[in-house]
Amino acid sequence: MIYSMTAFARVAEQIKNANIMWDIRSVNNRNLDCFIKLPESFRQLEMAIRDKIRKKVNRGKIDCTLNCKILNDENIKLTLNTGLVKELVKTIDEVNSYIPAVKSVNPMQILSWPLVLQKEEANTDEIHGAIFALFDKVLEEFLTVREREGRELKQFTEAKLKTILIITAKVKPLIPVILANQKVKLLAKLEEIKAELDMSRLEHEMVYFAQKIDILEEIERLETHVKETRLVLQKGGNVGKKLDFLMQELNREANTLAAKSVDSETSALAIDLKVLIEQMREQIQNLE
């Protein structure tokens, strides 16, 4: 199975006294990075949620958000962080000792200080259970989307690989013709300058020139990389990094082919190859 790193899923549900909604979205990333946004009263659930993601996802930048709206406050109790309040009052008194003219602080200002006043739901187990159950649903939907997009990217890549083989099949018959034409052109130029030629040296130079413009090795390597890419796609799993490396190798051979090309038809086919490989590379970067 192949998974895309780009996906989005949302699941919402209402329990007795709360509306719960989970969002998960991801984009491509070299490693796995999780950013989990929870209401302050549910912050203790973060590690458990993070562990659930790590067991199912290997790569990608994951943004995971919980929205939980309590429908009534019958089961909510406010708790005062007395230790923090004492420290705040002590600090305020110390500041007042330096600035006696400062008015006393309104208690509401202290209550609005972060973590001074905390909400506690009387039946947190029920809400926590619902949150986890709903997260399992959204994670499953999220993985389904990643799988579906991964399947589409696999089909896209296989189609491009097929086109690459069609192009290499067009180039192969051109190779002996290109070599023969270049030999004729070179001999014609030498004839024009009417220089006295050292035939053994000329033969050596012709062999060197033929090797320099011979593109059969690049064609064979392209076909080998296409074969390997297909095997990786068939095997599945965490293929993104392997395929990215293979795209670099394909691009290297296409560049060499373009550099060695000495006729317009081969040059045009080399450009087509480079375009195809770049299209694959852009999409493969989204695979896990």
Describe this structure in words.
Helices cover 62% and strands 16% of the residues. It has 288 residues and is of the alpha+beta class. It has three domains: 7-74 and 123-146, 2-Layer Sandwich (Ribosomal Protein S5, domain 2); 76-119, no CATH class; 150-284, Butyryl-CoA Dehydrogenase, subunit A, domain 3 (Up-down Bundle), CATH 1.20.140. The strands form two sheets. A four-stranded mixed β-sheet has the order 1-2-4-3, covered by helices on one side. It has a two-stranded antiparallel ribbon with strand order 5-6. The N and C termini lie close together (10 Å).
Domains (count): 3
Rg: 34 Å
Specify the biggest β-sheet. 4 strands, mixed
What is the end-to-end distance?
10 Å
The name CATH uses for the topology of the largest domain is Butyryl-CoA Dehydrogenase, subunit A, domain 3
The appropriate CATH architecture of the largest domain is Up-down Bundle
Helix content: 55-70%
* Unreliable stretches: none
Categorize the overall geometry: elongated
Give the helix tally. Answer: 9
- In order across it, which strands form the biggest sheet? 1-2-4-3
The count of β-strands is: 6
Q: Can you tell me the CATH class of the largest domain?
A: Mainly Alpha
Percent of residues in β-strands: 15-25%
Describe the secondary-structure layout.
Layout: E1 7-15, E2 18-27, E3 32-37, H1 46-56, E4 60-70, E5 76-80, H2 82-98, H3 107-111, E6 117-121, H4 124-171, H5 174-193, H6 199-213, H7 216-235, H8 240-260, H9 264-284
Parallel strand pairs: 3-4
Antiparallel strand pairs: 1-2, 2-4, 5-6
Helix pairs in contact: 1-4, 4-7, 4-9, 7-8, 8-9
